[in-house]
Amino acid sequence: MVARLPPLIGALLVGAAAIALLGKFHPNGSALHALAQPNLVAPVFSWRAMVELVIPLAITVLVVQNGQGFAVLDAAGHEPPINAITVACGVGSMLAALVGTVSTCLTGPVNAIISVRASGTGTTPPGSPSACSRSRSGCSRRCSPG
Question: Does a structural domain hold residue 91?
Fold first, then answer.
């Protein structure tokens, strides 16, 4: 069996070859080995920004993104700590905002990719305990373990 090259490594190699063939990479002496310095941004608060940005983003992150993430984890048989994850995402977003990056959240698509079972099917056998539906209050099982 021939080992496959990961696509990201292939793209890196093609990009490096293109740079080498075109001869467009000319860094000055110290820039080649320098680390980027963080650029801290002091927050500036305004009511207009609160209404135009904070409310829609809070709805998007808390309801849509985190909701999908919790639903995917729940369907995969996990019992995610909803409050703890929401607080961690909020604290992470505040820290990330200091350097101008995007907020953090528990997304559905990423959880769907990483929570696929080892069998590769991503499904739970009927009658297994994780196949039971759970209520959001305490994540108690509404059917008997099978």
Answer: yes
Q: How many domains does the chain have?
A: 1
Cut 0.90: pTM above it: no
Greater confidence, 116 or 51?
Answer: 51
Res. 68: pLDDT tops 70: yes
- Per the CB < 8 A criterion, the answer to whether 106 and 85 are in contact is yes
CA separation for the pair 52, 121 (Å, rounded): 42
Place of tokens 């305004």: 46
What is the spatial distance between Cα 33 and Cα 27, in angstroms, rounded to a whole number?
10
Task: Please check whether residue 119 lies inside any domain of the structure.
Answer: no
Q: Is residue 144 part of a domain?
A: yes
CA–CA gap between residue 61 and residue 106 (Å, rounded)? 8
12-29: b (≥16 Cβ within 10 Å) or e: eeeeeeeeeeeeeeeeee
Question: Whole domain around residue 80: which residue ranges?
Answer: 50-108+130-146
